[in-house]
Amino acid sequence: MNISIIVFPGTNREKDMGMAFSSLTGQQPNFVWHKDTDLPQSDLIVLPGGFSYGDYLRCGAMAAHSPIMKEVIHKAKSGTRVLGVCNGFQMLIETQLLPGALLRNKTLKFICKQVSLRTENTDTSFAHHLNDGDVIRVPVAHGDGNYFANEDILKSLEDHRQIAFRYCDTNGNVTGEANPNGSTQNIAGIYNKEKTILGMMPHPENATQIHQGPLEGKPLFESILNQAA
Amino acid sequence: MTNTASAPDNDAIFQEPEITETLGKEHGFSPEEYKKVFDILGRTPTFTEFGIFSVMWSEHCSYKSSRLHLKKLPTEASWIIQGPGENAGVIDIGDGKAAVFKMESHNHPSFIEPYQGAATGVGGIMRDVFTMGARPIANINALRFGDPDHPKTRHLVSGVVAGISGYGNCMGVPTVGGETNFHSAYNGNILVNAMTVGIAEQDKIYYARGASPDQPIVYIGSKTGRDGIHGATMSSAEFSEDSEEKRPTVQVGDPFTEKLLLEACLELMQEDAIISIQDMGAAGLTSSSVEIAAKGNIGVDLDLDKVPQRETNMTPYEIMLSESQERMLMILQPGKEEMARAIIEKWDLDFAVIGRTTDDKRLRLKMYGREWCDIPVPPLVDESPVYDRPQEPYDFAPAINDEEYDLPAGQTLADALETLMSCPDLASRQWIWEQYDSLVMGETVYSPGITETQASEGADAAIVRIPDTEKALAITSDCSPRYCYAHPFEGGKQAVAESYRNISATGAMPLAVTNNLNFGNPERPKIMAQFVGCIEGIGAACRDLHYPVTGGNVSLYNETNGEAILPTPTIGGVGVIQDWTKAASIPFKAAGEEIFLIGETKGHLGQSLYLREIHDIESGEAPHVDLEAEKTNASFVRQLIEDGLVTACHDISDGGLLAAIAEMAFDNEIGADLSNHTDKNAAFWFGEDQARYVLTTTDAKALKDKATLEKISLTYLGKTINSDIKIGDDLSISIKKLAKKNKNWLPCYMETGK
Question: Which CATH architecture has domain A3-228?
Fold first, then answer.
């Protein structure tokens, strides 16, 4: 499978993402510089986490206008799968490939901690190695992860089963206490209607190696790589 | 926006102020130093030259009060690649790789402007490390704040933590640990000590030394503005009420630019183009160009018109003294300029050839069509002042009678433990750690935090895997200022011993330290006695433990209105564990395991947290550090971990044995039955005797046999059990309840001030 990870000035989790894939496939994905205008043939495009352009404007807003993004948007609209994590999720929102908005965390502080996620839809090429309702433990590390959606968007997300993950407690209960950033309905990640694009705030790539602790981010990467299954 | 300038639109620039003794005083010169500048030049200095002498001879840059004593520190071992004198220390960690690390303070700026002060402190130390060709892989920090009840403390905690978080997170370098303490002695001078550890290939390490005549001098990074002018001089003076007015001398950080600078430098370093490189930190362009000239035994001609500038009508004085951040100076191989320019500009950074090296050992500056400075470099550096400042005999804290300080009437061990575990110095730092990205780069194994925040669980030192190997680095920062105040020599020893212990408790071999020596005004004999005592203690411990010093930073004048901080020589330690899977962590793993105490317990209560928190006194002798016992016990613990006999391990420090056990109990809510020891007094449970560890094992016999064979002092404490710490039938402490108290103090304080 051809995987392209886009590198922007200021992104900083592209190597973590590379490690998550290469430890399963045995080969490094392509790292594509944001100033390039041609994308190598890709079955999956990854927008990694970090602080693209320092996040000095709205997070992800500058990156959304990088030269390579024209091609990324074009490919995404033609059905190429796209995974955006953290800053990458913010870029997907800024390019309007995904609906809603990501606001400053409710605490107004950066937060890095392990959270539990309830898997809401596993009938997708990103999560089919999991079962609906499975709880996975992965870290978050962000300052602006407070997902906001208005009633109309929420209804549409529900109607099309676009909600991918919700923050929950270790038993899978979606509670206010389990929500690290104040997001609407504890939403941690969403799909587009076609389920070809996944954007999420938590970092499953940091829960894929033995030295990182529990390997609960791994099933996502296995799902992605075994797309045909 | 301006870039380079060839003519000012204001002629006033050409009218430099007259050099007078009053101006000398404002620049921090003593009358003798003032005269020496005239003697070296054989004439009246220009204002620009005067400014250059003043920053180069500031305490911050010249180490004039400390240099004589720093020589007493041991700096050699077969694994040391670079000791003191370069941007950072370098040690051999095997496989052709090197660890590059240093700790540096940003105390004065952080007190004045906590967010930017702390942020640029973190930025500065990372730059020191990547200047040498290393990719930073971990940051830690040591923070000291004033009394929690002091009106400024909350504001400072929140600003400093946000600043460290803002800069480190954006750089994508994990902040994996550190220490935070509170004491009224820091009310007017907080301490922000930041340490960065990086990894480099041994054959790709870059130094400031090595330049020859007739090579191009290149400036890269951010443009130069008027920020931070005289930052180094500010950091070399005491504070008074009007220190807030010094806010404009605090630099402003831009972590995004630094991230670009990091990637651009490391990319350029893959090419064979850089001869010598120096970051522009304290005293900016002055210090970096003089360092390169002095270390290469050459001269430097700079054309300041070519320096990328952020503001109009800047004077040479301002350009040379600006401490604008995220800038580097390097000497390139002639002919490599365009290749280098392409790489730097790919990262959207400024690149300018601003001068050439010469063979006449002079620093010459031209701008706006005239010469502003012509200083001989050797005397500027070699004849900088050195002082053997007077010390007075130290008034050591007298001994107390430990027997008078058993539990106060009506208090149980449980009450005392609860008070201790929720006191500011032992309460959970989760509120702080959660703001640091401790996981980015994906190599964090353990960090000294708690399960919820950190990679998998806490250990006494942060464990960060060396990419693509089985090995990991162990990193820690340590100091017990109250011991240093009571007895500077023993306190200095203790800081090193605790660092050695924290690394050993994970199973790693301690290799070398960097230090950050924070003290008051060295012109006061009492402070000088503290400084010298601590250095000699550090020297003695580093020598005996084969744990040499690779450099560091000295921060003096941490004093406001004559009130000095506690002597705080922070030790940043680095070690290596050959197989990270064997590294030991703090939490008890399962019920039914046997708990042992390594090391001798006499019950030393002097200067303990127990005395301070339970009896409300800060007195007594500092605990004595037996370096032989430290060495033997640490080696024994490392061997046990290597042999796979240890399931959890924690050194005993603040709060003593019972606090250590509580910390081991928290994460998995597994407690301990210590009922064999119902007869013990408070000194046994809370004494702060040194060279001790608590560990658990599933093979008590093997452990006991080894201890007997090696004549190690071993005490059987009891067994791990579910949910409580139990000492006899009458005393049972709920872990859940205790952990809640421990976790609540800091967030509650930050929210309500109580």
Answer: 3-Layer(aba) Sandwich (3.40)
Query: The tokens of B747 are what?
Result: 């967030």
| pLDDT higher than 60, residue B207 | yes
Q: Do B170 and A10 touch (CB under 8 A)?
A: yes
Q: Which stretch of DSSP H or E encloses residue B318?
A: helix B316-321
| Chain B residue with Cα closest to A9 | B260
Quick check: B442 and A214 CB within 8 A? Answer: no
* Pair type for strands A101-103 and A111-119: unpaired
CB within 8 Å: A212 and B172: no
Which structure tokens are listed for B661? 């056990």
Q: Is B725 helix (H, G, I), strand (E, B) or coil?
A: strand
For the question of whether the overall pTM of this predicted structure is more than 0.90, the answer is yes
Residue whose token pair is 């000239």: B293
Closest CA to B674 of B417, B502, B403, B411: B417
B286 neighbors B49 (Cβ within 8 angstroms) = no
Question: Which of these ranges, A183-197, B14-28, B525-539, has the smallest mean pLDDT?
Answer: B14-28
In the predicted model, what is the mean pLDDT of residues B197-201? 97
pLDDT of B9 > 90? The answer is no
Q: Rounded to an integer, what distance in angstroms lies between the CA atom of residue B488 and that of residue B535?
A: 8
Chain B residue nearest residue A54, CA to CA: B256
Q: Residue B50 is which amino acid?
A: F
CA dist., res. B626 & res. B428, Å (int): 30
Provide the 10 A C-beta neighbour count for residue B547.
Answer: 27
Rounded CA-CA distance B108/B249 in Å is: 10
Asked if B497 and B690 count as a contact pair (C-beta separation under 8 A), the reply is yes
pLDDT in tens, B440-498: 999 999 886 655 555 567 899 999 999 989 999 999 999 999 999 999 999 999 999 99
Q: How far apart are CA A81 and CA A18, in angstroms?
A: 17
Domain map (residue ranges) of chain A: 3-228
The token duo for B454 is 């950190």
Name B709's Cβ contacts closer than 8 Å, sequence gap at least 6.
Answer: none
Query: What per-residue confidence (pLDDT) applies to B389?
Result: 96
Residue A181 has pLDDT above 50, yes or no: yes
What is the distance between the alpha carbons of residues A36 and A205, in angstroms, rounded to a whole number? 25
- Residue A134's identity, in one-letter code, is D
Task: Decide: B450 and B458 in contact? Cβ < 8 Å.
Answer: yes
B609-628: average pLDDT: 97
Q: How many CB atoms lie within 10 A of CB B486?
A: 25
Element (H, E) at B301: strand B299-303
* Residue numbers in A near B581 (CB within 8 A): 210-211
Phi then psi dihedrals of residue B282, to 5 deg: -60, 135
Per residue, the 3-state secondary structure of chain A, as one string, reads CCEEEEECCCECCHHHHHHHHHHHHCCCCEEEECCCCCCCCCCEEEECCECHHHHCCCCCCCHHHCHHHHHHHHHHHCCCEEEEECHHHHHHHHCCCCCCEEECCCCCCCEEEEEEEEECCCCCCCCCCCCCCCEEEEEEEECCCEEECCHHHHHHHHHCCCEEEEEECCCCCCCCCCCCCCCHHHEEEEECCCCCEEEECCCHHHHCCHHHCCCCCHHHHHHHHCCCC
Q: DSSP of A28-55, one letter per residue?
A: PPEEEETT--PPPP-SEEEE--B-GGGG
Q: Over the stretch B150-184, which tens digit does the pLDDT of each residue have?
A: 999 999 999 999 999 999 999 999 999 989 999 99
Contact residues, A window 119-178, toward B, CB-based 8 Å cutoff: 139, 141, 143
